[in-house]
Prior knowledge:
By secondary structure, chain A is of the alpha/beta class. Chain A is 28% helix and 26% strand. Chain A is globular and about 95 Å long.
Amino acid sequence: MRKIALALMICLLLPCFASCHEASEMDDTLYVIAIGVDQGVADKWRLTIQFPTMKSGGGSSSSNGNGGNSSSGGGGGDDESGQGYATVDSPSFFVGIDMLNASMPRKLSFAHAQIIVFSEELAQSGLIGEYVAPIGRFSEIRRSSHVFVVKGTAFDFLKENKPTIGTTLSKSFQVFAAASENIGYFPHITLENFYEGLKSPYGQAIASMAAINEMESSSEEGGPKEEQEFKTGGEYLAGELPRDGKNKLELWGTALFNGDKMVGELNGDETRLLLMIRGDFRQGLYVMQDPMEPELIVSLDVQLDKKPQIDIETEGEQPIIRLKFQLDADLLSVQSMIHYENPELRPLLEETFKKNIEEGIAELIQKCQELYCDAFRFGENAAKNFLTIDEFESYDWNRRFHDAKVEVDVDFTIRRTGAQIKSYPIKEPIGEE
Amino acid sequence: MIKEGKFGVQEAVSLTVIAIVSKVFFSSPAILAGLVGNTGWYMTFISAAVALIGFGFIYLLLKRFPGKDLAEIFEISFGRVGGFAASGLLGFYMFFTTITRTNEMTEFLKVYVMPLSPNWFVAGIFVACVFMLCMLGLESMARVSKLFIYFLVFGFAAVLAMGVQNYDVNNLFPILGQGLDKVAFHGVIRSSIYGEVIILAIFAKSLHGVKYIKKEGIRAILISVVIISAGLLACSLTFPNYIQQEITSPMYEMATLIDYGRFIQRVESIFLYVWVIGEFISASIMFYSFIRLFCHSFRITDKKPIVIGSCITLYALALMHKDIITIIAGYVAVIRGLGSLPMLTLPLIALIVASIRKKGGDVQCAK
Lengths: 433, 367
């Protein structure tokens, strides 16, 4: 009798374990991959979502494909890329979801949302805090989602967000965002990082910049100029890279915030320096002017040896920041064929690069100080000088950073010289007048 | 008199550790962050030290009355009426704790995992599992604990290890958080977090004597403090203080942040197993302690009708809470703040009264 009762009980419980209340079929759900937020026209916010249409060989979205330009709902898609988008003007994110659900034959799920993009206009208006705070509370969106500030509108950005390699939208952007580690031209900022930055007494928030590149700068007429000033390649801002190709999107640079207001933008080079100071820089390819033949360049593969050493004095009125870090490099190319591998010449190269980095850092910190933006999280190190949270908060680091004195010391060593240990000059052409 | 099987040191330690540790999965790290800042991970050592002292009194009490369990000792120390009141108070506290854990579990599952399932459904499954474990008895519960604790510790350690990518040592500064005075104060007050060690005294007759109980209690507290401290430290390393106190379940949220590329992410499902199984066992043993104390107080020898009736009451009360904030800021706050009174102070009072009234120990032996 006891065994029968137990068996009956288990049989009765089994349907419960099948999760019938939460059950949802894969194809009953629309998995949103990207969320875009702009200032609205018909209402306060314009919410744009992007999702895979889950049609083999691509396909259009559920709606009539008239784009998302309507102010209260609509959708569009791309027959080739297999992704669709929809947009709505709504008073809040959550109402927007339900408004979109009303025009979608699938239930929206944000469990797989990977990117959240805010328009630059929204970020500069200081309204981003109003939007991020509610999203942080929404357990369906993971705090590991990537956050970007886009030039132009988030709607246009998502419309252009198509997988140019492969067919998977989710994979495409995940790999794209992870490129930060290998190039350092934009930071890898998650919703958690961004949210922390907005509330932090230890520093200010930053976000990756993104833009649509209209490919105009690479197609300028006139051909190559004979004498061009030296460029590092990192001095561009997002959307300005002189390039061409099918993918119009680019992630480049950093948006700087003061509170929840975007107050500035860093270019690629500045972003690398920022990441070095934050200890987030892993690797990046650099060019520098050849110290002996300035019209030619030397290429380096630079890596951050270990997290920077940051000591902050907070005793006096003016905080003093002492920053020290070690960069290692591989020599990639020497156009001049000068024998920089030679231990007598190598210090010249090292000193020149070190000086460039130190000057760059000093300028960058000054720029951020003017904006009251401790994007470097120096405050976290300053906190070590205080015993309690109250003491630190009353010190008001974010305000004090503005007046801080900074001392930078960079160690730079060329560790390896690539697959060559010596450069032998290329012979001059003969028989040419 | 309810007869229970006996079980060994490992089972007893496993059961007690699970009962103690499961709290860290819920809002405790967030509440602690609000009270003491980023110092919860070492504040808990103060709590454990106080709990060890409290357990020392429990041990002395059990030593004074060898072969007796806590409810019987209360009766001898305080007399029939006083013992009834003391057992009733402890039993009520155990029942209140079970209700709170059921509420916590239900609400947290709804927030993170099953937002569409109604409360009656989630709480129903929970109470059904508690009911089944209680029907199977203490020995089964202890053996289940021993079986699962390896998986639970492994899952917990795996989440902590994988979370390393999000750790930032700077989050531990300022090192004294909200101040040493607050750390010490809350460290003492929140010693109730280890109060579940009292179950060893409640079920003393199922264990192999006072000498073993001493060993089990000390081991359980020491293992628990390591696990709890590691969990709190991981939370503090992952979230700055001002964020940690906002999050409903920092441990779960920490697991969701683990992302090692496309193939290793969304590992919170591991954590979910740890969370749910741990909580089932924890709530069951607390509930069973109540059943045991209740049956003893009213001289009931058959636990089954009491288990059935109490489960129905538990289910009804588990559905009566107003909202999640009432649970976190109300019920849980009461348990953490006052929990050490029934769990650690009551045995001390019983020991003092027994000494004054010359009950137990050498005095009784001499008689």
